[in-house]
Amino acid sequence: MGSHPLNLFLRFLLEISTLAAISFWGWTQHEGFSRWLWMIFSPLIIAFVWGTFTVRNDPSRSGKAPVQVSGALRLILEIAIFTGGSIALFASHQNILGMIFSGAAVFHYLFSYDRILWLLKN
Questions:
Q1: What is the rounded distance in angstroms from the CA atom of residue 88 to the CA atom of residue 102?
Q2: Where along the chain do its domains lie?
Q3: pLDDT in tens, 41-79
Q4: pTM for this prediction
Q5: How confident is the model at residue 18 (pLDDT cuts 50, 70, 90)?
Q6: β partners of residue 63
Q7: Are 75 and 119 in contact (CB under 8 A)?
Q8: For residues 61 and 59, what is the distance between their CA atoms, to the nearest angstrom?
Q9: Beta bridge mates, 53
């Protein structure tokens, strides 16, 4: 179920939403010129980390990334980034969006149990 097209689409939406949430956080939590820097560079750093570390032969990703990591480390990285997106929404006083985002992330991982097991084995 983890590589079902609908679940992969949900994960893609979560990835994009995380970047948007972190960008919005950067804008709302800072002032002056630095808010522009936070808004632009925070999601760029997250996107860089997301795309840099992968597990060899991950069927839900290309598996072609500069740094190959263990499945457990990749899973921790994903959960940390999605948690960061959720925290960014709550910190920006977007509590309803934060709850929806958190629920969607939990829903995604519940239906990705086969991928989670695969990641933990690799």
A1: 11
A2: 5-121
A3: 999 999 999 988 888 877 767 657 788 899 999 999 999
A4: 0.89
A5: very high
A6: none
A7: yes
A8: 6
A9: 67
